[in-house]
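INFO batch 0412 | record 1 of 1 | parsing
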Amino acid sequence: TNWRQRGACTARLATERGRKRRIEARLESRKGKAMTERFAKVKEEFLALLPPTIFFFIALHIVALIRALMTKGTGIAPSSTMSIAVAALILGKSVLLADMLPAINRYPDRPLVYNIVWKTGAYLLMSLLIHYLERLFDFSKQAGGIVAGNEKLFAEIVWPHFWAIQILLFVLILMYCTTHELVRYIGKDRALQIFFGPRPGG
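INFO prediction complete | emitting C-alpha cells
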C-alpha cells in the first residue's frame, strides 16, 4: 500500500512538474512572440521614418548652405550638422504623424494632384512659421528679448533673402509631396523596382 501511495504521489508530482513546464514554455513562447512583434513594429516605424528624415536632412543642409552664403559677413552663425540632423528627425516624424490626420491626408481617393497641392500648401505654411520663429530666435538673442527681437527682425531682416529661402523650401516640399504621393499610389516595392531594380526589358 505504501509503495502504491508513493507511486501515486510521484505520478502527481511528475504531472504537476509537467504542467508547470508547459505553462512556463507557453509563457516563454508568448514573451518571445511579443518581443518579435515589438521588434517588427519598431523596424516598421524606423523604415517609415527613414525616407522623410533623409530627405529633410539633405534639404535642410541645402537651405543652410544657401543661407550661409547669403548671410556671409553679417555675424549670423550657420546651423550645425547636429542641429540640422535633429530638425530633420523632428520634421520626418512630424510628417509621418501629420499624414495620418484626416485634415492633412484629405484627398486619399482623388487624383494625386489634389493631395499634392493640399499637402504642399499645408507644409509650406508650417515651414513659413518655423522659418519665422527661427529668425525671431536669432534676433531675440541679439536684442535681449522676444518683443525687442521681433522689432529688430522687421527692421533689419533682408526680406528678399527670407522669401528666397521660402521659394527654395516650396520647391523642396513640392518635390517631397509629389514623390510621396506617387510612391503611395504605385507602391513602395514597385517604386524601388522602377528606380533601383532591373528594367523589364534589360
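INFO post-check: The chain has a mean pLDDT of 77.
INFO record closed
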